[in-house]
Amino acid sequence: MSSYIPAKEGDFVSWSANLLAVARARKDEWKLEEAPLAELESLFAEVKALHEICQTAAYTKLDMRAKNEKKGLLKRRLEVYVRNNLQNNDAMTDTGREALRIPIHDRNPTPRPAPDRAPEMETETPLPRRVRIKFKDANSPRWGKPRGAHGLECRWLIAEAPPARIEDLVHSEFATRSPLDLNFEEDRRGRRIYFALRWEAGSGKKGPWSEIFSAIIP
User: Fold this and answer.
1) Closest alpha carbon to 132 in 190, 186, 181, 188
2) pLDDT-based confidence at 208, cuts 50/70/90?
3) Relative to the CA of 157, which of 16, 40, 43, 142 has its CA 20 to 30 Å away?
4) How many domains are there within the chain?
5) CB within 8 A of 46, min separation 6: which ones?
């Protein structure tokens, strides 16, 4: 359950009452549909009534069970309603979200930079005509991309001599999971492939290039 929903029952009832009252008062302004809001109000009324019964000495185990079931259902439905109808509602302002007592999310988050270290790699040749490149963050015990990376760019070239610059690696591949398999035609077997790797963030920002590695196409 989302952390903004109060855990204590009394606080949850007060929070729910406020959210539904504010949503009802500003329904037209925020372009909220009537049916989902009315269903939540009806369910809340049941929870509130059962909560009040369970505060008295006359409550029964059946009352307590019914209250807990209805309360759990209300929490789940409110969480979905907040996410789908309030958090991402363009008709609302952050002042409105404050009145509802729901989190205010950054709608224009700062782009996450790419990792500032070049990938580490290892090559395998599991099949004829295939060079497999396993990649990971420097010093990480597991293969795969690090936090902040959307994927990995691999620039490569088949050549007789080592290229002098990264820019000479004219072919490009992109992988979001390790390993990256490069597959070649039969006439490329025995040739040497040169390649370099770098991380790329979801924002498009790129990390530093690795050194240029090489392998023989099997």
Assistant:
1) 181
2) very high
3) 142
4) 2
5) 70
